[in-house]
Structures are given as structure tokens and as C-alpha cells.
Amino acid sequence: MKPIQLGCIADDFTGATDLANNLVRAGMRVLQTIGVPEGPLDVDVDAVVVALKSRTIPAADAVAQSLVALRWLQAAGSRQIYFKYCSTFDSTPQGNIGPVTEALMDALGCDFTIATPAFPDNGRTVFKGHLFVGDVLLSDSGMKDHPLTPMRDANLVRVLQAQCRRRVGLIDHRAVAAGQCAIRARIDELKAQGVAIAIVDAVSNDDLLRLGPALADLPLVTAGSGVAIALPGNFGLQPSAQASALPPASGLRAIVSGSCSQATNAQVAHFIAGGGVAHVLDPLRLARDRAGAVAEALALAEAQLPSGPVLIYSTAEPMAVAAVQAQLGTEGAGALVEQALAEVAQGLLRLGVRQLVVAGGETSGAVVQALGVRQMQIGPQIDPGVPWCHAFGNDGPLHLALKSGNFGSDDFFTKAFAQLA
Ligand code: ADP
After folding, report:
1. Is 410 helix (H, G, I), strand (E, B) or coil?
2. What angle, 0 to 180 degrees and rounded to 10, lies between the N-to-C axes of helices 262-273 and 412-420?
3. Do residues 169 and 188 both lie within one domain?
4. 3-state secondary structure at position 264
5. Series of mean pLDDT values for 10-residue runs along the chain (421 residues)
6. Does residue 1 belong to any structural domain of this protein?
7. Of ligand 1's atoms, which has the minimum distance to the CA of residue 363?
8. Is ligand 1 within 6 A of the CB of residue 256?
């Protein structure tokens, strides 16, 4: 493995893919690993994104895991470290954004870093230190009622200060608009005032592209995935088709869908309306006889896969989901369906499937774990936020697209396979 340029630590799985996707589009060859790899990797890439699941675990555990990831990334040659968190700054008053940032600063001997979740392409903008989600302040968005990380204050300087020992300040839009020299001058000014971490305003990709060069010398950058569009240039890399090149795809094609989002319901309906072969898994049937239901789905797949992609889904409309949840409990139903879909995915691979689309964030996590996937090279984007990946699992290499709930156009499934062909 040649030394990597950029080492990234992401606090959740789909967020890691989101970051990797932005880096690839800006010209980096990127590998995403599930957890910290045990040794060196057998690939040449410009960046590695280590996906942790550390967003809502106790702060001390998040710090410990992030430091293990840091040590691996340093050993792999990283010239800069990128700590990636959610573009809605998901955290509690205890962390984990602040504690992980400070632990990484301590370990890197770093006296200054930035923090910005701005991702204008996704409607996340920061102005005067306040985070907007679409047209509303973070504190007026749906995030105010999030079950694990309710965000009730849009002032990120205040939010981050509550999680940090170091002083938090602001690089505001005037400095960002004035470009690299003004941003560097503002960093010097903040440092002289004893500020060690600065929230950065950004309302457009142009803001991020002006910010990027000013970050070239920082050992640590902390951000959502937006800043990633502006970093590869610092390593002399430009957008290129080679960055997203994957080995050619082969094998049979299938889709496993456990997402019940509006977008996924529309995608399933579109696939079926277009004549696609599909088989539904009924959670109540799974509760009675999971093995039988999974075997039935796989028997249909075995017969139909040679003629084209097969969809196996539990995707349902909200009323149907609520009825199932009333009988099995929300968590019980979720875990049961996830387990069944993961078994279906394992069975599909045994049948020769090597191009697999998975719909649903939790569903993707369950499938990736069941397939023993430890690393994925990130390829071309199918729709914003969803790239094809070349993954290595227990059954060898396969092409995998992991789509979190609300992503993708109605024709996502057919579009995905057409792109790979
Ligand atoms: P999304 O990315 O859309 O949120 P997830 O996979 O993260 O999708 O979450 C969907 C959850 O709903 C999973 O836990 C899944 O097992 C569960 N689920 C899927 N189908 C059904 C269904 N028909 N009834 C009840 N729960 C379901």
C-alpha cells in the first residue's frame, strides 16, 4: 500500500459514504473501511475513510475509537486528518463532536482547527455561525425532535463551546468571501485571541472552494462532507474519471429493500410498474416462519435471476408499517426484517449475485455485516449521495450500492444497473 494523503474518520456508516463520494467527485481515489482495519490494505488510494458508529455512544468510547482510527491512518501515511460528522451537527451537550475533536487535536499536537457542517448542495448552510437546514434554522427544523440528538440551538459556536475545553470562535462570511488570505489572517487573529476551534460560515460551494486552500496546512479538519469538495486540490488532484473507476462488474443483479421511505416506496412501485420481477416479504409471515419465508424468496430469485434483476423487499406504506409495528413492536419489527433481508442478501450471493443494490440505512448496515464486508472502494455516483462501490466480503468481491432512505430518483434501481453496465 502506497502512503495515503488524506485520512478520514466518520462518526457513522452512511455519513462515511457521503464523504467518500464527495472526495471521489473532487478527484481522489477513496477506500471506505467498516471500522478500523487490522493491518495495511492491499490497494492504492488517495484517501481512506474509516467508518465508525460513534455518533451517539458515550463520549469516552467515541474518543477511544477515534484515536485507534487516527493511529491506523497515521501509520498509513496520512498528511491530513478529516473528522467527519453529520451536516446537522448531530450531538448532545456531552458530545461527541467536541470531545473527539479535542482528543484528535491533543494527539496531533494541533493548536487550531475548523468546524463546519456546511453542505450547500444538500441545503446545509452556515451564516454568522448559525446552521440552516433548507430555509429554516437548525433549531426550527425536524432535528429539534430527533430521538437521540435533539438540536435546539442553531448557534454552532455556542453548541460546540458547550462540548469543548478549548475556546471556540467564528470565521465569518466576510472573511470567507474575501478568500484565502483573509481566511488565514482571521485564523491568525483568532489564535492570538486564544481561540483554538473556529466554526466557519459557508452558504455556497464557492465559499467552500475559497476555504479549501486556507486549510492546506492544518493537521486536522473537522466538518460535514461539504468541505471535502475543496480538499483534493490541496494535494494536486483534480476531478477525473479515473478517481471513480472500479473493476468491471459481472454476475447476477438484485435489489434488497427494507427502507419504507417515500422515495423508496416510489422506487419499488416504479420498478414493478416497469415489469421488474419482485417478491415481497411480509413481516407477520416472517414472525411466524422466517426461514420458510426467506427460502421462498430465494427460490423465486433462483428461477428469475438469469433473466434480469430481482427485487426482494419489505418496503411498505406508513399505514402498513404502523399496523406491523402495533403487533411486533417498532424495534422488534425492525430487527426481524433486517435479519431476514440480511439472510436474503447472503442467499443471493450464494446464487451468484455480484451486483447488489440495498435500500435503507439500517438495512444496509445489517446486509454489510452479514456479507462480512470490511472495505469498499468508492466508484461513480448514481444519484447524489449514492455511489456504486466495489466491496470485499466473505464471498469475494462484489459491486454494492447502499442507498439511504430518501435518496434517489424514482427509476433509481434500473438506472443503477444501467450505469454499471
Ligand atoms: P431508511 O434509510 O429509509 O430509514 P432503514 O433501513 O434505515 O431505512 O430503516 C427501515 C426500518 O424499517 C428497518 O429497521 C426495517 O427492518 C424496518 N422495516 C422494513 N420494512 C418494514 C415493514 N414492512 N414493517 C415494519 N418495519 C419494516
Report:
1. coil
2. 70
3. yes
4. helix
5. 95 91 97 93 93 92 98 98 94 93 98 97 95 95 84 96 98 98 98 98 98 98 97 97 96 96 94 98 98 98 98 96 94 94 98 97 91 96 92 93 88 97 89
6. no
7. 6
8. no
pLDDT at 389: 97
At residue 143, the pLDDT reads: 86
In a domain, 123, yes or no: yes
C-alpha cell read off for 188: 491568525
Predicted confidence at residue 397, as pLDDT, reads: 95
Dihedral of CA atoms 386, 391, 397, 401 in degrees, nearest 10, equals -20
Domain co-membership, 71 together with 106: yes
**Minimal-distance CA residue to ligand 1 atom 3:** 405
Q: Is the CB of 201 under 6 A from ligand 1?
A: no
Cell 464523504 sits on residue? 19
Are both 221 and 271 inside the same structural domain? no
- Domain with 142, as residue range(s), is 6-240
Conformational region of residue 366, where left means phi above 0, alpha means psi within -120 to 50, and beta covers everything else: alpha
All 3 cell numbers of residue 299?
427460490
Domain boundary residue among 170, 205, 240?
240
For the chain, what is the domain count?
2
Is residue 14 lining ligand 1, measured as CB closer than 6 Å?
Answer: no
The DSSP letter of residue 396 is E
Report which ligand 1 atom has the smallest distance to the Cα of 260.
Answer: 3
Identify the pLDDT of residue 352.
Answer: 97
- In short, whether 267's Cβ falls inside 6 Å of ligand 1 is no
> What's the 295 CA to ligand 1 centre distance in angstroms?
20
Ligand 1 pocket, 258 CB below 6 A?
Answer: yes
Task: State residue 323's pLDDT score.
Answer: 95
Cis peptide before 22 (omega within 30 of 0): no
Spacing, Cα 416 to ligand 1 middle (Å): 21
Q: pLDDT at position 42, please?
A: 83
Q: Residue 323 falls within a domain, yes or no?
A: yes
Mutation test residue for ligand 1: of 148, 259, 367, the one with most atoms within 8 Å of CB: 259
**Atom number of ligand 1 nearest to Cα 264:** 3
Domain boundary among 220, 240, 260: 240
Pocket probe for ligand 1: among 313, 331, 337, the residue whose CB has the most ligand atoms within 8 Å is 337
The finding on whether 386 has its CB within 6 A of some atom of ligand 1 is no
Cα separation, 68 vs 79, whole angstroms: 17
